[in-house]
Amino acid sequence: MIHPTLFTPNSIAVIGASNNLHNPGGKLLHCLKNTSILVDIYPVHPSEKEIQGLAVWNDIRQLPP
To answer: Could you tell me how far CA 41 lies from the centroid of its own chain?
Structure first.
């Protein structure tokens, strides 16, 4: 059975986020930022500090619960 919160998340982590919109992580982040969904978006990248205007998390283990 699929957990109901799968379709109503409070936050979304984008692993492999990028400033490059031709990169899947870049395109996904861009689309999430430009939709009307109201969730926290956490870009994750091992070496970047900011991507598409958002602060970056360097490791998924650092993300808030």
So the answer is: 4
**Which uninterrupted H or E stretch holds 25?**
helix 24-33
Instruction: Look up tokens 């109201």; give the residue.
Output: 38
Q: What is the reported pTM?
A: 0.85
Strands (E) across 1-65 are located at 11-15, 40-44, 50-51, 54-55
Query: Tens-digit pLDDT profile for the chain (65 aa)?
Result: 777 777 788 899 999 999 999 999 999 999 999 988 889 999 999 999 999 999 999 999 999 98
